[in-house]
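Sequence, please.
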């Protein structure tokens, strides 16, 4: 056996990139690589990049500038760029940073082993095509190593919605759903390796339409099929679009035992004028109606959202409409961003809102969202939840895990191990976590 080569992967951006990085590492394990946390000793450094907001490409170029010095100490080192910046920039990357050996877009990861062979011969490898074949089918099977109790599983990729601010339809391409049997096989495999909670991933996950044994299969049916997988205890999914929250999916939130009471449902703005300019195809009122239906099905559900402030033509009144929507919904968790113009998107050409104004609105929105988050955390005190332990805590005998509502919970549980699910009473809250005590 030859000595394994070392692969260092740095992942930026969303959970789908986290999943992709894992799959790329597995794919390259076939080419003799194992992963390392030490960039300096690596034979290949890979940046898995994100293009969603501000100066993403510039950050990648400056990181590449720092990394290329490792090549001086280690002439065998190869540098690779994957992900959405790779897709958006393509050849431009090697033009601007000649130290880069390999550029691979998100739809071409199955070609990594061949590409790796090419660069070992001193050539460059570049692939940012959108091939017809399913990259996941071409990726080699995972090695059967044990792994932690939670995992991501990509079921759908790409987006056909074309929100006016968003690069995803261009970097990840059109919506594609994986077949049901492949997903079930992967889920069972994960469970065999110790996984108890699976988060189904897709840019537009609730638009999932995969081929199943009974034909076209929607996300609710996929969730029900996963509900029957023995040993799998928890199911989550992200990210959803309000227009694809079907009655059947909402009903699953009330009825499906393993589906957790947490939903990330971005709205972006509370102003109908801005929603229209964003090409969201829904209104504030229709969003609130969806929330109402979800809460009727599952009253204790914790809601999370995404917001953009300072979108072109957003006035103070439009922003106030967003604040009002937030007050009506009450989010347990949220992500808010200042609008950042993305080249190639429809909104890119429009005049920007004054930066100082946009910053100030972002601060006001974040203050409101934090107040809601902490109020909801405070309300958890005294309630009983179930916690899936993910790791040991910093204190002796302490375990850390997540509740059904995705709150991080610290518990003194000296006899517990990773992967255990325990009943816990919440006794206090910290800034970004809760404290609890074991009930059993
Ligand atoms: N500017 C700011 N935020 C953006 N998002 C997507 N594109 C942009 C952009 N150009 C945010 C949206 C989306 C989340 C993943 O990132 O809120 O839901
Ligand atoms: Fe981007 Fe809109 Fe598609 Fe979400 S739904 S990935 S924000 S285009």
């Amino acid at each position: 056996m030859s000595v394994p080569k070392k692969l260092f992967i740095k992942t930026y951006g969303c959970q789908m990139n986290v999943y992709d990085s894992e799959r790329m590492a597995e794919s390259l394990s076939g080419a003799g690589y194992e992963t390392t946390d030490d960039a300096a000793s690596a034979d290949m450094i890979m940046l898995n990049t994100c293009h969603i907001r501000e100066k993403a490409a510039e950050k990648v170029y400056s990181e590449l500038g720092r990394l290329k010095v490792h090549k001086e100490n280690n002439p065998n080192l190869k540098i690779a760029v994957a992900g959405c910046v790779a897709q958006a920039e393509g050849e431009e990357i090697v033009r601007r940073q000649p130290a880069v050996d390999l550029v691979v877009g998100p739809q071409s990861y199955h070609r990594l082993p061949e590409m790796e062979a090419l660069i070992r011969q001193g050539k460059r490898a570049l692939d940012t095509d959108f091939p017809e074949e399913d990259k996941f089918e071409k990726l080699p099977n995972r090695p059967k190593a044990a792994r932690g109790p939670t995992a991501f599983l990509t079921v759908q990729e790409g987006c056909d919605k074309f929100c006016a601010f968003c690069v995803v339809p261009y970097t990840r391409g059109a919506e594609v759903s994986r077949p049901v049997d492949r997903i079930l096989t992967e889920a069972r495999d994960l469970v065999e390796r110790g996984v108890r909670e699976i988060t189904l991933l897709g840019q537009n996950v609730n638009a999932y339409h995969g081929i199943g044994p009974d034909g076209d299969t929607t996300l609710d049916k996929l969730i029900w099929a996963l509900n029957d997988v023995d040993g799998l205890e928890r199911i989550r999914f992200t990210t959803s679009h309000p227009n694809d929250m079907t009655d059947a999916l909402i009903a699953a939130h009330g009825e499906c035992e393993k589906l957790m009471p947490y939903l990330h449902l971005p709205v972006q703005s509370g102003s109908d004028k801005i929603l229209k300019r964003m090409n969201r195809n829904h209104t504030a009122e229709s969003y609130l109606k969806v929330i109402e239906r979800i809460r009727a099905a599952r009253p204790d559900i914790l809601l999370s959202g995404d917001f953009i402030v300072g979108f072109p033509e957003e006035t103070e009144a439009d922003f106030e409409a967003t604040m009002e929507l937030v007050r009506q919904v009450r989010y347990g968790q949220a992500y808010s961003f200042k609008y950042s113009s993305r080249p190639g998107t429809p909104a890119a050409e429009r005049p920007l809102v004054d930066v100082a104004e946009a910053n100030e609105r972002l601060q006001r929105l974040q203050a409101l969202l934090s107040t809601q988050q902490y109020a909801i955390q405070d309300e958890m005190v005294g309630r009983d939840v179930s916690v899936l332990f993910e790791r040991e805590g910093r204190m002796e005998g302490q375990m850390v895990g997540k509740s059904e509502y995705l709150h991080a919970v610290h518990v003194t549980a000296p006899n517990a191990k990773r992967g255990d699910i325990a009943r816990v009473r919440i006794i206090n809250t910290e800034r970004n976590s809760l404290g609890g005590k074991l009930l059993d």
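Residues 262-278+288-380 form a domain with the Transcription Regulator spoIIAA fold (CATH 3.30.750.200).
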